[in-house]
Amino acid sequence: MSNVRSVGWRAPGRVNLIGEHTDYNDGFALPFAIEQACTATVTVLAEPVVVVGSAQRDDEVRLALADLQPGAGEWAGYAAGAAWVLRRMGVDVPGLQIRLDSTVPTGAGLSSSAALVCSVGAALNDLLALDLSPAQLLTLTRNVENDFVGAPTGGMDQLAALDCTEGHALFCDMRTVVGEQVPLPVGDDGAGDLAILVVNTRAQHQHATGEYRARREACEQAADLLGVDALRDVAMADLPAALSALPTETLRGCTRHIVTENDRVLRTVELLRAGQLDAIGPLLTESHASLRDDYRVSIAELDVAVETLLAAGALGARMTGGGFGGSVIALLDEHLVDAARQAVTAAFARQDFTSPVAFTARPSRGAHRVAP
Ligand code: GLA
Q1: 186-360: CATH homologous superfamily?
Q2: Which pTM value belongs to this model?
Q3: CATH fold group of domain 6-182
Q4: How far are the Cα atoms of 49, 299, 320 from residue 292, in angstroms, in the given order?
Q5: pLDDT per residue over 219-228, tens digit each?
Q6: Ligand 1 centre from 335 Cα, in Å?
Q7: Is 157 a catalytic residue?
């Protein structure tokens, strides 16, 4: 057992380059970690309590370890939930103080919650010398969100927050839950002249979680009707037959999106491996159209941002994350970044939308230890 009684771990938010809503269909996704991250500093306490504080909040939440129950602690549940999951696994969890400090914007579709649960999970693995395998750590962090907080997320965000590396996107196979590093030479690494601009629309749909659940259920129902384990098992060549076997437009739309999106991820990975980053733009834009028209998770702010970025010269643009608000990404020549940013701000002002916030993304490293 280590005698270190306080550790710090940092885990990033993510942008999903392509492969949206595929994770809970056992499919493919291609996220990369962003520079914005959450740092968790965790210290052992003598008292059997979990105390959670955040540099971004004035309140501190204090929960007795023995009373931890799913749903407890509101915002602090994303941190305290790890203690509950570990106790459920049979770990003798001591009293803990958890201090959070995050630069990942919340409600922006950039996985601020995965950054949080992964920084805390990795810190506890280290502090309590649990020696969890990468798969076990991933399960721990997913369980915090799924079982303690009650957020029905699909696992891609946590895999990205834990396993991404600098300068790469992570090709995730969500059936085997394994990620492969794929070079993504954007940003200020001097390797190329393309940038990924992230536009946080700051729009948030009230019913996003309910809509997310409804899409998951539709996918499960479609898979059942088609007699497959998950929509991942429907090949592109079999899509027409699958569609004609489904009874409603909702089920057909969901299936069409998942099958074509998996195919777009595979084609994007092939292009990136061949060093053809400049050729992936149309796949990004097709992904957006599919999410808008077939999966129906886009909203006006996302569509206006995508159209404006394309008109400003982007090679491709799409919403990223779950949808119903959040962010849009565009791949574009770095010299066009300022003009594109201004064009979106002007378009939003014309529509009377909240003013967006934009930044260029730099593919960054996943969870790592920092000085407490
Ligand atoms: C959210 C979820 C992920 C994934 C995306 C959509 O970010 O947390 O698991 O389903 O939506 O791709």
Answers
A1: GHMP kinase, C-terminal domain (3.30.70.890)
A2: 0.96
A3: Ribosomal Protein S5; domain 2 (3.30.230)
A4: 46, 8, 12
A5: 999 999 999 9
A6: 31
A7: yes
